[in-house]
Structures are given as structure tokens and as C-alpha cells.
Amino acid sequence: MSPGDFMGLCAVLIAMIVMFAIFAGVYKRRLAFLERKLEITLGATAEKAAQYATHNSDVENRVRVLERIITDGGNARDIALQIEALRGESGLEVTKQ
């Protein structure tokens, strides 16, 4: 192996090491980006779960009231009037999702 071949081999090895270092830095930044993206998604998911829990408890409370009205007895007209009265008290409108 001549000195020129040796210098060429050293240059190729140095170039490969530099390229490896650059790709390692890029990969590290990509992992940091994906981790941050996951943290943001996790926060949004937790917030959404809390909203669903609140909405679920509201619906459960409404169902309990309706069950109480139905089980207390009365005719259909009285039940309809009681439901409308409760709707007016709470100020909430029934919405379809």
C-alpha cells in the first residue's frame, strides 16, 4: 500500500465518521421532535377525557331526573310538562351530536 492509497483510505474513513456524526445529530433531533409531539398529544387527550367525563356526568344526572319523573307515576301529559319545566329551569337545550 502506497502512501497515496493510505491517505485516500484515511480521507474516506474520516468522511464516513463525519457523515455518521451528522446523521446521528439529525436522528437525535427527530427523536426530540417526536417526543415533544407525543407530549402535546398526551395533554390534548387528557383534556378531552376530562371534557367527556364532565359531559358524561351531566347526562347521567339528566337520566336520573327523568327516571325519577317516570317512576313517580303520572300520565304522559304530566310527564311531558315536568320535563319541559325542568328544561326551562336548567336553561340548557338538548343538542344532537
Quick structural summary:
Helix content is 87%, strand content 0%. The chain has 97 residues and is an all-alpha fold.
SSE layout and pairings?
Blueprint: H1 3-71, H2 76-90
Tally of separate helices: 2
Q: Note poorly predicted spans.
A: none
> Biggest sheet, in brief?
none
Overall tally of domains:
1
How big is the Rg? Answer: 34 Å
Q: Termini distance?
A: 78 Å
Structural class by helix and strand composition: mainly alpha
Strand % is: under 5%
Question: Could you state the order of secondary-structure elements as H and E?
Answer: HH
Mean pLDDT: 85
Count of strand segments: 0
Shape: rod-shaped
Can you walk me through this structure?
The protein has 97 residues and is mainly α. The protein has one domain. It has helices at residues 3-71, 76-90. It is rod-shaped and about 105 Å long. The chain crosses the membrane at residues 6-27. Keywords: Membrane, Transmembrane, Transmembrane helix.
Question: Can you give keywords for this protein?
Answer:
mainly alpha; 87% helix; rod-shaped
